[in-house]
Design a protein that fits this description.
The structure is a single chain. The protein has about 190 residues and is an all-alpha fold. It contains nine helices and no strands. α1 packs across α4 (about 55-75), α1 packs across α6 and α5 packs antiparallel against α9 (about 180-190). The radius of gyration is 19 Å and the shape is elongated.
Length: about 190
């Protein structure tokens, strides 16, 4: 496939710069304190110029979440392969999340707001949760086939519970950072006979 040329390539590069910078700022300062103005200044644009790349503030923050997902995938999978050890991958992800409180806040806030069907992020979260449940259930079945998890566990239900647990731990951790999300997730796995 040919590489984009000219102003199109520059536009793609600027959009990537915006997302990388925004990810750092939101991780550091939190969703509440990361303003469009601050993000625009950080990349040398006006607020209007920044939003030109995304269409709206809401879409900008959805794209920041997509970038967060891509970074998280690298955290759990290394160089692109799906994680073999679901327990390790999700526990590592919780350790990583503890280092980026602003991104956890962004995820939690937008997730709560997006329950309304007409919210711009509704489809993003609906699809993200569906994909997480599907991949989680597949990973559970693989672990069952390998003898690492009991066969009697319903993989689909376990996946739903697992992601509910992760979201709940993240929410509680925002209120009380003394909660060790990774440790509690490890304890959950131990209850399954892991």
């Amino acid at each position: 496939m040919a590489r984009p040329r000219g102003s199109y390539a520059k536009g793609i590069a600027k959009r990537e710069e915006i997302l990388d910078t925004a990810l750092e700022i939101v991780a550091r300062d939190g969703y509440s304190r990361a303003t469009v103005r601050e993000l625009a200044q950080a990349v040398g644009l006006s607020q209007t110029g920044l939003l030109h790349y995304f269409g709206s503030k809401e879409q900008l923050f959805i794209e920041i979440l997509r970038r967060r997902d891509a970074v998280d995938f690298q955290v759990v999978s290394g160089e692109g392969a799906l994680p073999v050890d679901l327990e390790r991958a999700l526990t590592d992800l919780q350790r990583h999340n503890a280092e980026v409180p602003g991104l956890v806040q962004l995820f939690s806030r937008l997730s709560a707001e997006a329950v309304e069907p007409d919210h711009p992020a509704h489809a993003y979260f609906r699809d993200r949760y569906r994909e997480a449940r599907t991949s989680g259930a597949e990973a559970v079945r693989e672990r069952q086939a390998a003898g690492d998890l009991p066969e009697g566990i319903d993989a689909d239900r376990l996946a739903v519970l697992l992601f509910a647990l992760i979201d709940g731990l993240q929410m509680q951790w925002q209120y009380d950072p003394e909660i060790d999300m990774a440790e509690h997730l490890s304890y959950f796995w131990s209850l399954l006979g892991r």
